[in-house]
Amino acid sequence: MKELLKKIWEGNSVQVYAIVLGQMIIVWILFKLFRKFILSIFKRAASKTASEADDTIVVAAEKFIIPYIYFLINYAILQQLNFTDHASHILKVAMALITTYFFIRFINHAVYLSVLLYMQRKGEPKERITHLSGILIVLKVLVWTGGVLMLIENLGYNITTIITGLGIGGIAIALAAQNILTDLFSYFVIFFDKPFEIGDVISVNNITGTVEHIGIKTSHIRSVSGEQLIMPNTELVKSTIKNIKRLERRGVSFKLNLRYDTNEEKLKGIPQIIEQIINKQQHARVERCHLTTLADYSVVFEILYFIDSSDYKLYLDIQQQIYIEILDTFTKKGIDFAFPGQTFILQHPLEVNKNKQ
Hints:
The protein has helices at 2-6, 14-47, 53-78, 85-121, 126-130, 132-154, 159-176, 178-193, 233-238, 264-279, 312-333, 349-356, and strands at 8-9, 12-13, 201-204, 207-214, 218-223, 228-232, 242-243, 250-258, 284-294, 299-307. The mean pLDDT is 80. It has a five-stranded antiparallel sheet with strand order 6-5-4-3-7. Strands 8-10-9 form a three-stranded antiparallel sheet, covered by helices on one side. The chain has three domains: 2-179, no CATH class; 195-246, SH3 type barrels; 250-333, Alpha-Beta Plaits, CATH 3.30.70. A hairpin with a 2-residue loop joins strand 3 and strand 4 (207-214). Helix 10 packs antiparallel against helix 11. By secondary structure, it is an alpha+beta fold. The protein is elongated, with a radius of gyration of 39 Å.
């Protein structure tokens, strides 16, 4: 048995191989036990809190930190063996790849966690946090590019030529993808400037609908008639957007055309009648009611009132009730509406001849 352990194979004794293998098995068992018991305790504790930050930290430890420490310890254990130069180089390259992979993923996760905590402290809604996916894609590409270049440099390659080639190629790609880059920039404008958010009712280019999704290139709007409209972010940023959901109060203006033969007393009483009708409605307050125009066929009263709500259905209900009460009140008081027309004076033929004489 002793002779077997002392036997040399590939530059190492069987005893050294056995020790290395035993150490790796022990490390594997310890990490299994750590995941099953200790890490599960942290998971349960994190799940009981309202914040998502501690859950994200536990996930980062489970996915990136613990696996990398496991590989690092095994790499240190393997250093007890004598390797050929070729095998040692392969092992170093493999460890460099593993290190780069976990480092990049950890950085991306740390960036996500930092932005998440920042947005939570600001009290941002969940819809805004969902938008992070678009920005994180760009950040992930940048981090992965930088990580790969660092790996290539650490492996002994000259990255100057590579960067020069990427620069020339990047210019060509940028010229070929101007629209994509413009849409991406527009996405950043929408995210940071917040002209609208998911769930907002907006009106743009004579289209009114509810925002369902904000993507990197396009946003999805569900129109009032039911169709889903896919609109490029560039067009949205260029257009004038009315965010109806953020409407604190709605101003409503309408006109009443009355006959010229309406007597002075009735005309003077109209502002008071209109004010009583409008102010009687819940959420509505009259701003003004004046006789503003002497038109060709009518005298015109212009009315302006405000509704302290952005609910479009509520606006229609109030406006409908106001119109009904105006019609009913004017009918009872003998106030007639004017309609476009002309007045003709008809005379009997005998009267016409008499006038001529």
